[in-house]
Amino acid sequence: MPIRYRSADEDSARWAGFRYREGDIVISTRSKSGTTWMQMICALLVFQSPDLPAPLAQLSPWLDWLITPPEEVYARLDAQDHRRIIKTHTPLDGIPLDARATYIVVARHPLDMAVSLYHHSANIDRERLRQLTGQPGSLYAVSPRPSLREWVLRWIGAVVDPRTELDSLPGVMLHLSDAWARRAGPGVVLVHYDDLSADLEGEMRRLAELLGIAVPGGTWPALVAAATFDSMRARADRLVPAPPGLLMDNAAFFRRGASGAGRELLTGAESARYLTHAAQMAPSDLLSWLHREAG
Predict the structure, then answer these.
(1) What residues have CB less than 8 Å from 153, skipping those under 6 apart?
(2) CA 108 to chain centre
(3) Is there a contact between 79 and 163 (Cβ–Cβ < 8 Å)?
(4) Is the pTM above the cut of 0.90?
């Protein structure tokens, strides 16, 4: 029985009403860890054109988001005659897993994710979000707003329930540890954000092979170019996963995309404190892969 995860704007119980189909692709990530990037990559592989037939959020709906009524999401997915791509921030133990689907989990260095989450939070119109979800508040609505450094240090040291605070450090480690334990099984694919940054074409080709998608050789350059960070920022209005007015600046959703910002922010002692906390939450082999440690 899947675990139910709920927040101010998400509810994984909505998966109970979803009907799987052969070839479904489910993208399961933590916030600001490469979700939209992976949606774009999968859409480019499925449609084999940089010119997608509809905005990305329509082609690849966020199933658990409370902003869109569940019946509308199910109907949109049922009506799609192409290979479907479903977005979720729910860990795999909160999803009814199906042998017909492939589950892609994208991992990003947690400190980089935290920096991106801080900036993303400042770009959200909180009043608009409350209107859309019917909720009195939202995650990370902090007033007065601390500095980035102060916020990240609080984030590292926060003692919270990972099943209710999924974008906390414990929540990140819960999500990734569950996926890591399933990585040898059929249908689960782990992707590291830094590998996408370092070798986008290589990772896209790897994913195409794992998904059983044949791409003509001459098509690759245009697909890879469309998946670059600069290209996605230039098309932000068609790619951001938000209804009009929710983000104050759509292009700012694709703020930086590079790795290392979180580690650059901390002193040596603070980095050591982060690693000590992380070591208590996840297996060592996962952490070596996640942190890109040598050896």
Answers:
(1) 266, 270
(2) 9
(3) no
(4) no
- Determine the Cα–Cα distance for residues 160 and 77; give it in Å rounded to an integer: 35
Choose, from 89, 109, 175, 192, the residue flagged as catalytic: 89
Cis, bond preceding 144 (omega within 30 deg of 0): yes
pLDDT in tens, 3-62: 999 988 899 999 999 999 999 999 999 998 999 999 999 999 999 999 999 999 999 999
Domain spans in the chain, listed from the N-terminal domain onward: 12-290
CA-CA distance, 141 to 62, in Å (whole number)? 22
End-to-end CA distance of the chain: 38
86: phi then psi, degrees, rounded to nearest 5: -115, 130
109 is catalytic: no
Q: How far apart are CA 21 and CA 88, in angstroms?
A: 17
Q: Say yes or no: domain 12-290 is CATH 3.40.250.10.
A: no
- Alpha carbon 239 to its chain centroid, in Å, reads 14
